[in-house]
C-alpha cells in the first residue's frame, strides 16, 4: 500500500471514536424491514479487526454458519474501503464486489462515514443493512434463536443483561477503545492520560478476574467475547504499535491466564489469525509506522500453555456444548 492510498489515524490531541453507526436491525419480527431469514444475509468481517472478530466468535458459538454466510476482507485496506483481497479475482463470490464500500453506497449513495467491518449485507439487494457491531452480536443471541445450534450457549442471558451491559460499557470505554486512545493520540498529554486510564482499567479487571473465571456469572457471556478480542491483540500489536507498554499481557498473570483460557476454548482461538492482525495494524497505520515493516515477534506459542483457570470453577458453555470445528473454508493458520 502506498502512502497516498493510506488513511490517517492519529488525531491532534485526544482520539475520539465516531460511534454513529447504521442502526437498522435484523429481527425475528422484521420491524425494521429486515426479518431474520436463513441464507438472506452475508456477514462481512475481517479477521484483523477486533470489532469484527466479535461477530466471528458469536456466530461460531451459536452455530449460525448454515444460515448466515461469511465474507472475509483482507487484512489491509486503503482510505476508501475494506476490500475482498483474499477471494479469487479479489471479488466476493456472493456479493460480486471488490470493495465493501459498494454495499454501503448501494443503500446510501452519499454515505458520509467510514466503511467499517463488521457489516451485514442483504444479498438480494446488495445493500448494507447494519454495521452496528455492538448490536449485531446481541441480535445474534436474541433475534436469531430459531437458528441456534443445539447446545448453543446463552451469551446474553436475560437475568444478567443489566450486569453484562454495565461491564461492556466500561470495557468498551476504557479497554477496547482505550488502546486506540493511546495509539492514535496526537499529543503527549493525551497519550499520558490514555495510558493511565487503560492500565487502571486493566488493574480493575485483574482484581475482578482473580476470583472468578468469567466476567459475569460462571459461564462465558458477551462480556468475555468483547474483552477477549482486545486482549488477543495486546502483545502482537498494541504493546508496541500503540505504545501500551507498561507491561505485556503475558506479564499480567491473571489477565494472561484468562485470555489463554478463552483462546483454548472452541470458538475463540480458532477465529484468531495473528498474521492478519499484525499485517493490518503495522501496514495500514502508516502515520504511526511509516515503513510498513511488520515485526517478526512476539513468540505466540505461549497461547497454548496451561492456564489453570478451571480451578476457579465455572462452566464455559453453561448447560450447552462446545461448537463443532470450524468449517474447512473458515479455518485459521495454526500457531507455529
UniProtKB/TrEMBL annotation:
It holds the Pfam family GST_C_2. SUPFAM superfamilies: GST C-terminal domain-like. Residues 306-336 are annotated as: Disordered. It comes from the Bacteria. InterPro entries: Glutathione-S-Trfase_C-like, Glutathione-S-Trfase_C_sf, Glutathione_S-Trfase, GST_Omega-like_C, GST_Omega/GSH. Residues 131-291 form the GST C-terminal domain. This is GST C-terminal domain-containing protein. The lineage of its organism: Bacteria, Bacillati, Actinomycetota, Actinomycetes, Mycobacteriales.
Amino acid at each position: 500500500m502506498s502512502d497516498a492510498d493510506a488513511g490517517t489515524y492519529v488525531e491532534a490531541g485526544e482520539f475520539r471514536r465516531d460511534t454513529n453507526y447504521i442502526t437498522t436491525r435484523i429481527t425475528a419480527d422484521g420491524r425494521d424491514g429486515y426479518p431474520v431469514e436463513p441464507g438472506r444475509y452475508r456477514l462481512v468481517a475481517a479477521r484483523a479487526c477486533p470489532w469484527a472478530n466479535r461477530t466471528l466468535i458469536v456466530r461460531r458459538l451459536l452455530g449460525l454458519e448454515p444460515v448466515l454466510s461469511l465474507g472475509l476482507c483482507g487484512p489491509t485496506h486503503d482510505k476508501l474501503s475494506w476490500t475482498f483481497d483474499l477471494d479469487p479475482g479479489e471479488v466476493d463470490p456472493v456479493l460480486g464486489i471488490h470493495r465493501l464500500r459498494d454495499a454501503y453506497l448501494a443503500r446510501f449513495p452519499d454515505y458520509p462515514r467510514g466503511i467499517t467491518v463488521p457489516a451485514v449485507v442483504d444479498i438480494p439487494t446488495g445493500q448494507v443493512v447494519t454495521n452496528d457491531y455492538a448490536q449485531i452480536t446481541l441480535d445474534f443471541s436474541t433475534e436469531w434463536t430459531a437458528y441456534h445450534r443445539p447446545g448453543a450457549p446463552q451469551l446474553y442471558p436475560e437475568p444478567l443483561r443489566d450486569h453484562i451491559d454495565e461491564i461492556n460499557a466500561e470495557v468498551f470505554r476504557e479497554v477496547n477503545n482505550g488502546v486506540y486512545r493511546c495509539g492514535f493520540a496526537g499529543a503527549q498529554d493525551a497519550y499520558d492520560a490514555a495510558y493511565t486510564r487503560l492500565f487502571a482499567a486493566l488493574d480493575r479487571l485483574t482484581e475482578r478476574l482473580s476470583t472468578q473465571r468469567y466476567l459475569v456469572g460462571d459461564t462465558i457471556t458477551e462480556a468475555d467475547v468483547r474483552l477477549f478480542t482486545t486482549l488477543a491483540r495486546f502483545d502482537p500489536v498494541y504493546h508496541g504499535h500503540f505504545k501500551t507498554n507498561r507491561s505485556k499481557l503475558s506479564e499480567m498473570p491473571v489477565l494472561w491466564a484468562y485470555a489463554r483460557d478463552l483462546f483454548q476454548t472452541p470458538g475463540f482461538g480458532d477465529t484468531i489469525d495473528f498474521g492478519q492482525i499484525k499485517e493490518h495494524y503495522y501496514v495500514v497505520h502508516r502515520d504511526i509506522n511509516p515503513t510498513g515493516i511488520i515485526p517478526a515477534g512476539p513468540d505466540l506459542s505461549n497461547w497454548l500453555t496451561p492456564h489453570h483457570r478451571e480451578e476457579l470453577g465455572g462452566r464455559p458453555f453453561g448447560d450447552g456444548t462446545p461448537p463443532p470445528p470450524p468449517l474447512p473454508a473458515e479455518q485459521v493458520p495454526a500457531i507455529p
